[in-house]
Amino acid sequence: MKEFFSNQPSFPPVLGLVGHSMLLLSLLLVVIGAIKYHENKAWQRTFKGMQVLQLILLYSWYLATMVPISQSLPLYHCRMAMFVLLLAPDDAAYKEYFSLIGVFGSMCALIYPVFDPFPWFHVTIFSFIVGHLALLGNALNYLLRQPSYQLSPGRIAAITFGVNTFILLVDVVTGGDYGLVWNYVIETLLFTAILTAFLKLF
């Protein structure tokens, strides 16, 4: 367990063909399972439990190792979606928005994973894999249960603008690195187009 909670960075794990195939298979199983069992309470609780466990372990490690605030704040899109899907009321339009983020972001992360510089058996790697699988399951379970949607392309654009503005401000204040947020206009337009397309799938 010492390795699992180590604060000594090394090198990110190399997936290889087998590892990548396992990630893709896991992604596929979650999608198929959600389509079949999204109304099942035990199935829903399983993914919420996975998400809670992942977040508790990750933030316990952040606190124990005094990770800088620029790295440990939950202020990028997938991490925000994890918290929203666990805590927000089901009738909130922004929960629909972050569910779409959860589906798109989790698929991207699992298809092209970028791990932290730690060995395989580490809390950050566990958090990355289990966290994105749980997010995908929770997002699909929520979206597939909705009889209709409150979101529209205009509303998606407005929420994306607000979320990206907030992340950009936090990025500047904390010195964090949230990737494409500096390409502010491009990312906002891209997210709006992608999430609007994803909404049409549900």
UniProtKB/TrEMBL annotation:
Keywords tagged on the record: Membrane, Transmembrane, Transmembrane helix
Signal peptide: none
Transmembrane domains' residue ranges: 12-35, 55-76, 97-115, 121-144, 156-175, 181-199
Domain of life: Bacteria
Pfam families (alphabetical): TMEM164
Name used for this protein in its record: TIGR02206 family membrane protein
The organism of origin for this protein: Streptococcus cuniculi
